[in-house]
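Quick one, probably user error.
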């Protein structure tokens, strides 16, 4: 409240300095006359405040090391719950297991290890804080109840015999699950299931509703449903294409609303901007592309920013950048940030603007090896990170870690290696 009051007084002060007092009196309805200036001032202050909070993130909690160390590949948080005791963090690991923690204390709760293949992520249901999904290279998506220690999923979604799932997501209404496959011979699929009634018939695997098979011609590495529009989904592939679909349409051709070409292998995709009308992607060679879907029906260019190698742009003498992990859109500040790091475990927070990228801050002293995953919690402005040192860390603004014991490097060997494949942009023409 103090920040809001101070911001308003600051805006009034600007008006007083640049406009005579008589003018303010004659035009008492200054809210309409100077609204753009006040809005811009508040937006600038909000962004500066968020950047300060990000730069002030400090370690609040560490998870206790597991008896079987593994890379922490993906993290998701359960949605806000009425009960303070039902808050979970789920982590997919390189040893083919899912670990569940208390999201506030990072106390280990349970582990699900009945996966015959490599996991491609974890996602909590949006309306239920105890239901978590996981996709596997064995051609299944499984649904787990994290309140139960049983190793049997409450529901399983089966793909077609040749499917090897390496990406997936659940839409914001929890009605549709979609998974992306590796390329097998000439086939690459987006596979869809009806996710309703996930606890009603756990004994039988659900069959797909259908597939999209024509829009990508190589491995589909990432899938991301729109945060507020359940019918919109974006997919990214090693063919360099980032496709946006409206799954309410009757067929794949009509569903494909836009195709953007990153000209490289896509490693991460997300939505950003007001009402989430923008799409961005990261590539396996550390590139960044950012597009505005609101410009599709206009004469304006849809590309907001394209950076071939972020490491060259934000690297400074004391803050080298070795890789990118992903991006996060801060709703309060309406600002997009990227997260990257170094092989020694430092985490870089990077601000995105149409005029370029800039380093906001660096989180040091936490991880001792490459950071592979993160999850942002807007409610308390905290950040969860996991890495190749098998550590799960909780960062909060201005936090002080109780244990001051120096953590030795826990970097471990793993068969899970990130594939880097750069493809020529001529594989498929760009559509607007």
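Nope, works fine. Designed sequence:
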């Amino acid at each position: 409240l103090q920040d809001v009051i101070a911001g308003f007084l600051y805006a009034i002060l600007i008006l007083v300095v640049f406009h005579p007092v008589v003018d303010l009196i004659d035009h008492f309805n200054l809210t309409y006359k100077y609204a753009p200036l006040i809005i811009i001032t508040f937006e600038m202050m909000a962004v500066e405040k968020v950047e300060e909070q990000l730069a002030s993130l400090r370690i609040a909690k560490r998870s206790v090391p597991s008896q079987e160390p593994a890379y922490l590949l993906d993290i998701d948080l359960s949605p806000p719950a009425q009960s303070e005791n039902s808050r979970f963090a789920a982590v997919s690991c390189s040893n083919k297991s899912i670990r569940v923690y208390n999201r506030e204390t990072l106390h280990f709760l349970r582990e699900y290890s009945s996966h015959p293949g490599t996991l491609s992520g974890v996602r909590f249901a949006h309306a239920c804080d105890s239901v978590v999904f996981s996709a596997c290279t064995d051609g299944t998506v499984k649904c787990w109840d994290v309140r139960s220690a049983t190793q049997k999923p409450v529901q399983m979604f089966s793909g077609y015999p040749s499917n090897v799932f390496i990406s997936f997501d659940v839409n914001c209404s929890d009605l549709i699950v979609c998974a992306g496959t590796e390329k097998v011979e000439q086939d690459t699929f987006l596979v869809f299931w009806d996710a309703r009634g996930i606890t009603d018939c756990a004994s039988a695997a659900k069959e797909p509703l259908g597939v999209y098979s024509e829009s990508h011609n190589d491995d589909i590495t990432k899938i991301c449903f729109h945060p507020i529009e359940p019918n919109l989904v974006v997919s990214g592939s090693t063919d360099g294409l980032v496709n946006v679909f409206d799954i309410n349409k009757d067929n794949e051709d009509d569903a494909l609303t836009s195709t953007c070409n990153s000209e490289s292998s896509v490693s991460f995709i997300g939505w950003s901007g007001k009402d989430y009308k923008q799409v961005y992607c990261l590539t396996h060679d550390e590139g960044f592309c950012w597009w505005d879907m609101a410009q599709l029906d206009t004469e304006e260019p849809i590309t907001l920013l394209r950076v071939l190698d972020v490491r060259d742009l934000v690297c400074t003498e004391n803050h080298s950048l070795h890789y990118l992990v992903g991006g996060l859109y801060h709703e309060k500040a309406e600002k997009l940030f990227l997260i990257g790091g170094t092989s020694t475990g430092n985490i870089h927070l990077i601000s995105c603007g149409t005029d370029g990228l800039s380093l906001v801050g660096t989180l040091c002293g936490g991880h001792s090896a490459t950071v592979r995953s993160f999850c942002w919690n807007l409610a308390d402005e905290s950040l969860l990170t996991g890495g190749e040192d098998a550590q799960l860390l909780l960062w909060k603004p201005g936090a002080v870690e109780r244990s001051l014991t120096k953590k030795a490097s826990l970097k471990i060997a793993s068969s899970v290696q990130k594939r880097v494949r750069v493809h020529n942009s001529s594989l498929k023409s760009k559509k607007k």
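Residues 35-55 form the longest helix (21 residues).
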